[in-house]
Amino acid sequence: MASRFNVVRRLFQPVSARFRPNTVRFTRNPIQNPIKTQMATITTPPAGKHEWLVVIPDKPGTQQKRIEVRAQHFAGLKPYVESQQFKTGGALLKDKPTSDDPSTWDWYGSTIVVVAESKEEVKTIIENDIYTKSGVWDTENALILAGKFAFRFP
User: Fold this and answer.
1) What pLDDT, in 10s, does the model give residues 43-91?
2) Tally of CA atoms within 13 A in the half-sphere of 129 that contains its CB
3) Shortest CA distance to 89 belongs to which of 58, 50, 55?
4) What is the distance between the alpha carbons of residues 24 and 130, in angstroms, rounded to a whole number?
5) Do 141 and 55 contact (CB within 8 A), yes or no?
6) How far apart are CA 154 and CA 103, in angstroms?
7) I want to staple 72 with a disulfide (CB 3.0 to 4.6 A). Which of 21, 31, 130, 141 is the partner?
8) Computed from CA positions of residues 120, 124, 127, 130, in that sequence, does the dihedral angle turn out positive or negative?
9) Residue by residue, what is the 3-state secondary structure of the chain?
10) Residues 6+ apart with CB under 8 A from 50
């Protein structure tokens, strides 16, 4: 009975008091069933750094070039992925792929979530990628936005 009282009491507290920092709780209806069903930790970047959502379109007619330098692109990503500076990323497609063969995909570009101190740092990373150097990415039209992501799942 005491646990039900605690749940009801928590409902009348400010939101900041109901949730621990850096966590999101997914619960069933707290009145009918106060048991926590799942918890996902929200990771925050180190002090002075921010997460940046990056969307980079491809230049028209560069699909073949993209396929040619794709292995070099993945090799260049490795240090960023291993250091967790890149949180997620991948291809953006204009339509649902019909196979796992990248040569058949209708490419739009790429997306990345990057941990960096500034937009300039993100631009430097993008400019040094083989997709930019080989003319695949249209970096002049890249969208780079600072983000505060509310949740993530593995």
Assistant:
1) 678 888 999 999 999 999 999 999 999 999 999 999 999 999 999 999 9
2) 25
3) 55
4) 38
5) no
6) 28
7) 130
8) negative
9) CHHHHHHHHHHCCCHHHHCCCCEEEEECCCCCCCCEEEEEECCCCCCCCEEEEEEEEECCCCHHHHHHHHHHHHHHHHHHHHCCCEEEEEEEECCCCCCCCHHHCCEEEEEEEEEECCHHHHHHHHHCCHHHHCCCECHHHCEEEEECCCCCCC
10) 115, 116, 117, 146, 147
Distance between CA 96 and CA 105 in Å, rounded? 8
Residue 43: per-residue pLDDT: 67
Sign of CA dihedral 99, 101, 107, 110: positive
Kindly tell me if the per-residue pLDDT of 92 is higher than 80: yes
Whole-prediction pTM value? 0.71
Rounded Cα distance, 81 and 79, in Å: 6
Residue with the two structure tokens 């990373």: 125
Judged against a pLDDT cut of 80, whether residue 35 lies above it is answered with: no
